[in-house]
Amino acid sequence: MTIDDIKEILGAKMVVGDEWKDREVHTACGADMMSDVLAFMKDRSVLMTGLCNLQVIRTCEMMDIICIVFVRGKLPDDAMIEMAQEKEIAILSTGHRMFSACGLLYEKGLRGGTSYRE
Amino acid sequence: MSDTITMTYEVPADDFTRAGEASSKVKSKLKKMGVNPDIIRKVSIAMYEGEINMVIHATGGRINVIISAEEIEMVLKDHGPGIEDIELAMQAGYSTAPENIRSLGFGAGMGLPNMKKYSDEFLIESTVGVGTTVTMRVKMDE
């Protein structure tokens, strides 16, 4: 599944990363607590979150997460957009709530990652 | 990569937006050096959690990173309140972070467990009223 596919499935707005929209996403996770995100190693992952601050971008940078979907129509501020551009992390914003957004992607075949050392 | 590289970072107090800057710089450095991405991720996550802890609990501190051919060593030293019961603090889910930190996405009680999980060697020393020092090592060959 590509970033562009996710955009289509979720009826999302592409905020950052139109130039990376053909990148492949392998796994997904949904969380509002960044330490929960950091507890699982992921590979070319997309993060769905209702949290909208600079540390979301930082967390994704550390995890090599390639795409963030903000749920419930949340939009990043300028500092977040700037950091995401610099770190090459695509940002989407969807009107769906967390549960629905995760469900829609799961239905289309996207799955969660595995825990590190599990 | 026979030389040893040392980097020192000051983690600013009470500035949540800047937390992670040091980890980001170390990550960039390791990338440029061509280190295995899995190892870079382990170092980045462990150090980032440590940086966040320093901002939340200890009004900042200092991080020393030493990169050698064998390993990456991170020493995080703060002069915060110290940890009374380290065993309890190491339990997943235990947190003393204030509610406003939880609303920022941290304080889930996963910081120290994550730091331990992603490092090959993990050492924590703390004295109440003096501060805390965390030493983490990630091996290059794992």
Structure description:
The complex is a heterodimer of chains A (118) and B (142). Chain A is of the alpha/beta class and 118 residues long. Chain A has a single domain (3-112), classed as HprK N-terminal domain-like (Udp-n-acetylmuramoylalanyl-d-glutamate--2,6- Diaminopimelate Ligase, Chain: A, domain 1, 3-Layer(aba) Sandwich). Chain A has 5 helices and 6 strands, in the order H-E-E-H-E-H-E-H-E-H-E. In chain A, strand 4 (67-70), helix 4 and strand 5 form a beta-alpha-beta unit. In chain A, helix 3 (54-63) packs parallel to helix 4 (78-86). The longest helix of chain A has 10 residues, at 54-63. The radius of gyration of chain A is 13 Å and the shape is globular. The relative contact order of chain B is 0.20. With 142 residues, chain B is an alpha+beta fold. In chain B, helix 1 (21-32) runs antiparallel to helix 2 (37-57) and helix 2 (37-57) packs antiparallel against helix 5 (111-118). In chain B, strand 4 (121-127) and strand 5 (131-139) form a beta hairpin. Chain B contains 5 helices and 5 strands, in the order E-H-H-E-E-H-H-H-E-E. Chain B has a 5-stranded antiparallel sheet with strand order 1-2-3-5-4, covered by helices on one side. Chain B has one domain (5-139): 2-Layer Sandwich (Heat Shock Protein 90). The chains are: A alpha/beta (118), B alpha+beta (142). The interface between A and B is medium-sized, with 22 and 28 residues.
